[in-house]
Write a structure and sequence with these properties.
There is one protein chain. It is built from five helices and three strands; from the N terminus they run H-H-E-H-H-E-E-H. The protein is mainly alpha-helical. A three-stranded antiparallel beta sheet has the order 1-3-2. A hairpin with a 5-residue loop joins strand 2 (about 75-80) and strand 3 (about 85-90).
Length: about 130
């Protein structure tokens, strides 16, 4: 007798053990991917990053860099100079993430016009 039932579907749990919730949600926030790609070109200082990531506040850049450092994507190096020099750079893990995320970013760039048109059609239909 053959099993004709549908294959089991994945269950997504709301806990720290779920890779999607734990990892993807962290890097899928408003700023992490932008910071990731800002650092692809090499190490950079805080104010240089802030000037290249338009609209990010000092507080948000600080917090996001700390979160990315905690997750192992970014390395923070403090140089004993006067004034103190601090640089941020991607770790090997961060470079791997950037490489993987590049496919999504490229896809978004390639399909941005289609997505914008779909949003416009949806918004216009929902207003009628």
């Amino acid at each position: 007798m053959t099993n004709t039932s549908a294959p089991a579907r994945r269950v997504f749990e709301q806990n720290e053990r779920c890779p999607i919730r734990n990892v993807v949600a962290q890097i899928g926030d408003k700023w992490s991917i932008l910071i990731l790609f800002a650092l692809v070109d090499g190490p950079d200082r805080f104010n240089a990053l802030k000037s290249r990531i338009k609209g990010i506040s000092q507080r948000m850049l600080t917090q996001t860099l700390r979160d990315m450092e905690r997750d192992g994507y970014v390395k923070r190096t403090v140089y004993a100079e006067v004034p103190v020099k601090v640089e941020y750079e991607l770790t090997e893990l961060g470079r791997g993430l950037a490489k993987s995320a590049w496919q999504l970013v490229s896809w978004a760039d390639d399909h941005f016009d289609e997505i914008t048109a779909a949003r416009t059609r949806y918004d216009e239909a929902s207003q009628s």
